[in-house]
Amino acid sequence: MLFTYLLIIAIIIASTGWILLGRKKNVTVFPGPKPFPVIGNILEFIKRSEIIPKCVNFMVEFGDIYKLQLGPTLMIIVCDPNLIEKLLTTQQFNAKSQMYDFLRNWLGMGLLTSSGEKWQRHRKIITPSFHFQILEKFVVTFDRKSLILVEKLKKHSNQADFDISPYIYNCTLDIICETAMGISMNIQEDSTSAYVKATNIMSNTILNRVLSPLKQFDVLYRYTSDYLLEMKCLNTLHTTTENVIHKRKAIIGENVDSLEGNKVAFLDMLFNKGLSFNDIKNEVDTFMFEGHDTTGVALSFIVYCLSKNPDIQDKVFEEQQQIYENDPNIDLTYNILQSMNYLEKVIKEAMRLYPSVPFFGRAVCKDFEYNDFIIKKGSSANIFAFGLHRNPKYFPDPEKFDPDRFSPENCRKRPPYVYIPFSAGSRNCIGQKFAMLEMKTTISRLIWNYKFLPCPGFKPDLVPAIILKSLNGVRVKLVNRE
User: Fold this and answer.
1) Any coiled-coil ranges, and where (predicted)?
2) Which of 11, 202, 239, 391 has the CA that lies 20 to 30 A from 230?
3) How many structural domains is the chain composed of?
4) Model pTM?
């Protein structure tokens, strides 16, 4: 058995070396840190919390386009808004990069990971589920679940600082289940959601694969402890989504023909389009993950940014005072949320500094020439949104939290593809309007009830585990509003 393992490893090393040598003549035009044989630049990222800072430093050192070699995988890191526009709007880059293959055990061929005709068909099916008339109805659920979050946080008010992110993740998962899935799961009543825990573990194991020249190969990954952990998590994740599908089917029975006209939850739309159970499950897995995790991350960092900027927090509260008119029982509506202009700028600025998806990739399916560069077929073009959003060429004094960057006049001054928290082009986030309404509702209710104070000495320890995560949580202190 040992001989077999050694033989496999030797073959992988030889194959990787051949790949690297074969590509070398094609990529020398790109600047970047010098790679080691076989492993490439992986040693640069042994400490996970150094990934993002080093990628930002490489952007400063090598420019807006540079290369990284992660084992057998060549990554072109892109922070150039003109190239980003081509990558996000040109049909030949519609397919996701090979790193998304690591999500397939979990998400199958759902909207995030699929491409071509299947992606186009499913996107067309799902898009009507996020029509503003449906979103208007969802606001009631956003509000009710946000008020539950307010109640859950009461035990921490006027107490020591704490990690607020688990409470927020449970809230966003509660919301996505009851709105998009049409199922009441009461997740906020369970302070230790198995689904949220499994999601976090899966994110870490996938990042481990990206940064391992051996784990990138399925044949070797299957012999690792990460694979066993992934299988355990997948059982939790898939069981949860299958239960959601079966419960919703039981609620609506077999009478799904009338659902489309009523524009119900996106899960109902899938039932009505003749998709296989596996296709439906893949989309539910995708939306359960993306619908709670990305929004949960964004909300956590919005609270953190407000805690660090009390003057801006006061302006948000003043806007809410005008809306609430001292009536805490006011029902938030779609139109009221649309009127929260300053809060929207705050949300956008927080997502500039902490984009929920710091990297997203596109497969290069044929040689592509851009300026003096040739991006070779088989490469992976990875858009570094985190670095782009902190580039002083487009955002002066980039570390400063300044919501006025998103005033209409300031937005007009910037190139269109320098701010992409929801991606852009045909594969932009289908749920971005849903997410914005949800975030406005949640922050509105939280800031009406609590003042956010910073935790002295705390700084998020950021890692790009598919979604941007903080290894040490998001710590704040809550004080009751009088």
Assistant:
1) none
2) 11
3) 1
4) 0.91
